[in-house]
Amino acid sequence: MGERSKGTRKSQPLRDALTAAVRMRDGSFPGPLAVLTRDQVRRVDELCVRRFGIPSILLMENAAASLECVVLAALASHQGVQPEPRVLIVCGPGNNGGDGLALARRLFITGLGRRLSVVLGAAQSRIRGDAAINLGIARRVGVRVVAGGRAPVVAITAEARRLGRPLLVVDALLGTGLTRPTAGPMLGLIRAVNALRADPRIAVLSVDVPSGLDADNGAPPPGGEAVIADATLTLAAMKTGLQRASASRWAGEVGIGTIGAPVAAVRAALDTRPADKQPTSRKMSTPRTNKRGA
C-alpha cells in the first residue's frame, strides 16, 4: 500500500462526527436537568419574555449559537479534506425555521459562503415575526436562500444536488408545537429530507425535535410521518417524548442546547404541572457546572 499523499488525512464519517458533536454539546450544557412538555416549553418562552425581559429574538439567536457549535464541530472533522462538507438548511414558517435562518446567517459569516444554502419550506408570506427578521438579515448578508414556492420538494432536491456531497442537512421545519399528523406540502418536505438521508454521505440534524414528531409522546401522531435524523439538538431542556425509547428511531443522538433561559423560568414552567405528574426520575436540579441558566 502506497504512502498517503502529503497534506491529506482520513476524515471521520459525517454522521459519526455529527453524533459526536451533539454528544459533546450535551455534556457542556449549562442549564438545569429538567424534562418539559410542549406546554411547559411554551411557558418557558413566555416567562423569558414577560417576566425577565429577554427579547424573543435573543432566545432565537441563542438557539442558533448552540446549533452553530454543533455544526462547526461536525464540519471540523473534515477540515483540510476534500471535498469539504456542504450545509443545507430546510426552514419552516415558524420559530423552528427562524432558528434555522439565524443559524444560516451565523454559518455564512463564519465562512461557509457558497457551501451553504437555505430552502424555505413555506411561502415567504407565512414567515413572520422573529423568523421574518432573520430571513431578511440572512438575505442581506449574502446567504443563498431559495424560495420553495409551490414546489419546495423540488427545490430541496435541486439544492442538495447543486451543493454535492458530503452534505449536512439541518431540519428546521417544525418544532414542539405539532399535535396533528403532517400532511400536504409539509409531509412532502419530510419525505424529501428522509429520501436524501438514504445516501450515507448525507447526515441530518434536527432542531429541537425531528419535524413531524410529537414532542410529548416521542412518535408521529397517528397517520403522520417524521424526519429520521442522525442527531437532534433539543433546546432549553429535554422534552418528554425524546426520553422515550421509541423516539430514538427518529431523533438519533439527542443533546441539549441552551437558549439563555434563566433557571427560574424553567423552575416556574415545571411548577405549572400538577403535583401528581411531576417527573420523579429526573427532578429539577441546579445546573451541572454554573448558574447561567438554560
Number of strands: 9
The biggest beta sheet is recorded as: 7 strands, parallel
The CATH topology corresponds to Rossmann fold
Radius of gyration: 19 Å
| Termini gap | 51 Å
What is the annotated CATH architecture?
3-Layer(aba) Sandwich
Mean pLDDT across residues: 88
Low-confidence stretches: 1-9, 274-294
General shape: globular
The CATH class label is Alpha Beta
Residue share in helices? 25-40%
Describe the strand arrangement of the main beta sheet, using strand numbers: 4-3-2-5-6-7-9
How large is the count of helical segments?
9
Could you state the order of secondary-structure elements as H and E? HEHHEHEHEHEHEEEHEH
Concise synopsis of the structure shown:
With 294 residues, the protein is α/β, with parallel strands linked by helices. Helices cover 39% and strands 14% of the residues.
What does this structure look like?
By secondary structure, the chain is α/β, with parallel strands linked by helices. It has one domain: Rossmann fold, CATH 3.40.50. The protein has nine helices and nine strands. The strands form two sheets. It has a seven-stranded parallel β-sheet, with helices on both faces. Helix 7 links the parallel strand 5 and strand 6 (202-207).
Secondary structure blueprint with pairings:
Elements: H1 14-27, E1 35-36, H2 38-50, H3 56-76, E2 86-91, H4 95-112, E3 116-120, H5 129-141, E4 145-147, H6 152-163, E5 167-172, H7 184-196, E6 202-207, E7 231-235, E8 238-239, H8 248-251, E9 253-257, H9 263-270
Parallel strand pairs: 1-8, 2-3, 2-5, 3-4, 5-6, 6-7, 7-9
Helix pairs in contact: 1-3, 2-9, 3-4, 4-5, 6-7
